[in-house]
Amino acid sequence: MKNPLAILFLIATVVAVVSGIRDDFLRLPSQASKFFQADDNVEGTRWAVLVAGSKGYVNYRHQADVCHAYQILKKGGLKDENIIVFMYDDIAYNESNPHPGVIINHPYGSDVYKGVPKDYVGEDINPPNFYAVLLANKSALTGTGSGKVLDSGPNDHVFIYYTDHGGAGVLGMPSKPYIAASDLNDVLKKKHASGTYKSIVFYVESCESGSMFDGLLPEDHNIYVMGASDTGESSWVTYCPLQHPSPPPEYDVCVGDLFSVAWLEDCDVHNLQTETFQQQYEVVKNKTIVALIEDGTHVVQYGDVGLSKQTLFVYMGTDPANDNNTFTDKNSLGTPRKAVSQRDADLIHYWEKYRRAPEGSSRKAEAKKQLREVMAHRMHIDNSVKHIGKLLFGIEKGHKMLNNVRPAGLPVVDDWDCFKTLIRTFETHCGSLSEYGMKHMRSFANLCNAGIRKEQMAEASAQACVSIPDNPWSSLHAGFSV
Q1: Residue 409: domain span
Q2: pLDDT digits (tens, 9 = 90+) for 220-239
Q3: How many domains does the structure of the chain reveal?
Q4: pLDDT tens for residues 440-480?
Q5: Which residues form a coiled coil (predicted)?
Q6: Is 165 a known active-site residue?
Q7: Do both 139 and 283 map to the same domain?
Q8: Is 440 known to be catalytic?
């Protein structure tokens, strides 16, 4: 994957400069909302589950995406009792936020944070609670959340939106472990078996989001998935410093994800009573592909693709202000923009913090330290995984074995228990993979598919990782990734 040249130059500069850094100098429900479904004359209730799966100001965009989605659903007529929101809620009043209490999702956008219900915040955002909400299992909930669950019925239509970092077969969570594709699909199958929905539309924003469903999600469960990226591909962020358009100058973070703002801004301007999911898929596909170069990213669909013929109104309602608007595939994002990989968005933030800090200040020193630590962690993880590949398969075959992408229709790994075991074994010897290290999840899947077992992995990991960088990104204090 390659970023556009300007952003690629920035990232390369940061990597080159920080990797050669000297200590003294930095070179670089009650009454439900009901509706009439025109295509099959069935009444039902609209439900929505919105999940921002990250934390930290550096990941500002994920909570901004979710807040924006809430505003669209609210204008569409959904009631708060039918909208369940997961967000860490550490952005709006973060000390780094130049406008306390305000979250934006567009350089010229309004506040999307106001009024958003925070049903599950902080450490209450975890896989067990997410699964409990989907399955309407109140007894399985933990923490101090609102207790709202997806208490849908057989005629109801559900919209799920998940935005975060991801890797092959994995979606991020602010508290570990992350969500494994096998576990998520098992939950969706249980939801289907319960007979408690008519149809589900599931939007996923993450790197390799397609790997969460490919070869795993049945086509006959009335679940339609649109993902930001195919298996083996990155997803992209937008509205970043140095981009056009960029956020207001006081912001040093990216405030949107490219896939997400594409569908969100499409919903902002169109009459959702007439626009179908297939039409929105085409719009989003066009808006994301024009920003990229060479192999780029491909928006994907899984499950019951026939549901894409339904209108967005069935799940999201529609803003009365748009009733007279007609559908157009014109790019509401404006001119094509440069984009940067989800996995490199943090470098933009840390570099901006360093660049903007006054010379000789404590802020400058702290920003320099953060840059050095994040780059040390990246190099440690990349080199460790590469070394393990050479130890297990030899110098010539190692790279190919670790990076092989399986054919479409196959899950990333056949043995999910092996997948989890090898990752934990690696982290025991080499430290946390962290959000950046999720890019290597495919390597662990490929090791399992090649027959590598725990004992071999432990021996190779111990040889590859003589020491672990002493920084927050490498620490295992938060637990294993899966």
Answers
A1: 369-464
A2: 999 999 999 998 889 999 99
A3: 2
A4: 999 999 999 999 999 999 999 999 999 999 899 899 999 99
A5: none
A6: yes
A7: yes
A8: no
